[in-house]
Amino acid sequence: HPPNMRTPAVMIVGLVLCPCGLLLTLTGTLAPNWRQVSLIPDQPSDLILEQGIWDLCRERQSTHDRLCGQEDELGYFKEVPVQVARGLMPSSLVLTVLGLVVAALGVRCWQKKPQHTVAGASGLVLLLSGLLSLVPASWYTHELQVLPAPSGATLAVGYSLVLSYLGSCLEILGGLALTLSFHRCCKKC
């Protein structure tokens, strides 16, 4: 009877979730909105400060005037959670791209059978990349209220942090799915 020519579902799931996770993590890394600071005393009520891991922005909501590249007067960028995020988020992105390249080699697209060992190894790399971006997002969230901000201001989670969380989770799930490829290798043994 002829060999099964279909790509296993776990590989397809991994190859769909991980690039989606990469896009979300990339957006979360680059966009300057890990935290929003609003209702700052002695400032207009519609002023919002957006703090990311690379940039600080001010936006007036009534006029949508946005100015980035603000001076870091409070020492926000010197804080350990921000420094760790600056190191781990780009490392996670590089590892995700590497994992996707390895996954493309392991998942059958141009060959008769998928290479389960290679696909499983790519799953481990992608799982690690998801964890590398989940750690700074979690730590930053834990320290959200403690990081420097004007006194009396209201602090809230920004969309970049949410996107980083979602991207991390998709990479972890996709990596786990690809790691299940090892199951086929163990069956053969």
UniProtKB/TrEMBL annotation:
InterPro entries: Claudin, PMP22/EMP/MP20/Claudin
Signal peptide span: none
Matches recorded under Pfam families: PMP22_Claudin
Subcellular location, record wording: Cell junction, Tight junction; Cell membrane
Transmembrane segments: 12-31, 88-107, 119-139, 159-182
Main location: other
Gene Ontology CC: bicellular tight junction; plasma membrane
Keyword terms of this UniProt record: Cell junction, Cell membrane, Membrane, Tight junction, Transmembrane, Transmembrane helix
Recorded coiled-coil stretches: none
GO molecular function, one term: structural molecule activity
Membrane-topology descriptor: Multi-pass membrane protein
Similarity comment: family membership: Belongs to the claudin family.
Name used for this protein in its record: CLD23 protein
Gene, per the UniProt record: Cldn23
